[in-house]
Write a structure and sequence with these properties.
This protein is mostly helical and about 270 residues long. The chain is built from ten helices and two strands.
């Protein structure tokens, strides 16, 4: 029994890689997180191999990714290094499962809009819940109101700005679709601003890439590093410094992202 000229289950890891990790996946400029390019795509076929031995669907794997992401945020509610270390591990695991859901879909030829939608739900909710958890962590757990409102408010504000920044890319695709334009290709030069000043500022930002701090992986890394620093500081001070530093930088990243989009060819007819 075969599906699209390959067996229901892969016979070798090499065969699985050939089908589930074609060049157009490995060479995507923007869709792949750096951890995937660095090492997760080397590990994910082994997880995908195990998943293909079960009846779980690609959307089911995406559901697992969502749950791992939520667990990552929940782990940050555990005080100290233990919670941050657990969140760090779970953040990496979420990205590993995220690699595998697409690989399962490509092997089984089961791509669907529902899968794309669930993937978006997973990343949006995880990257909103983590900063909220960081705010709760900065407030101290359990909470004491009204004194802790300030830190929880900072966490929720950070979550809002991160989600808005993330949504800008999807807004571009929606705007192009509504305008009847073709789908953007995932090429490196596609997002390059056409205005020289904006292009120079965008290139300069690569030397201090604070705008890349707001993915779940980077946020958990920051939380872990902060928990280590916090061992040598008064209780909660390191966590509070972290969220206070992240919020204005996130606002700056949001503004810069918006300007870069408006100055690029992506929103031009």
């Amino acid at each position: 029994m075969t599906i699209d000229a390959h067996p229901v289950r892969p016979e070798t890891i090499a065969q699985l890689r050939a089908v589930s990790q074609p060049p157009e996946v490995r060479l995507r400029a923007n869709a792949e997180h750096w951890t995937a390019s660095l090492y997760l795509r080397n590990l994910s076929p082994y997880l995908t191999w195990l998943l293909l031995k079960t009846s779980i669907s690609a959307n089911g794997v995406t559901g697992l990714m969502i749950l791992v992401g939520w667990a990552t945020a929940a782990a940050l509610l555990i005080p100290g290094v233990v919670g941050a270390a657990l969140a760090l591990v779970l953040g990496q695991l979420q990205m590993l499962v995220d690699c595998s859901d697409g690989e399962v879909a490509r092997w089984r030829s089961s791509h669907s809009p529902a899968g794309v939608f669930l993937d978006k739900v997973g990343h949006y909710t995880t990257e909103a819940l983590i900063p909220i958890a960081l705010g709760l962590r900065a407030a101290g757990w359990p909470l004491e109101f009204p004194g802790d409102y300030a830190w929880t408010t900072v966490g929720f504000a950070l979550a809002l700005v991160i989600v808005l920044n993330k949504a800008l890319n999807d807004m571009v695709h929606v705007a192009r679709a509504n305008a009847g334009l073709e789908k953007l290709s995932d090429r490196k030069g596609e997002a390059e601003p056409s205005q020289r000043l904006v292009a120079r500022l965008r290139r300069a930002a690569r030397f201090v890439p604070f705008h890349r701090l707001y993915h779940s992986v980077e946020l958990t890394m920051l939380a872990f590093a902060t928990s280590i620093v916090g061992l040598f500081l008064p209780p909660l001070s390191a966590d509070r410094i972290l969220v206070l530093a992240l919020l204005p930088l996130a606002v700056l990243a949001l503004i810069g992202h918006f300007v870069a989009i408006m100055a690029s060819k992506r929103v031009r007819a």
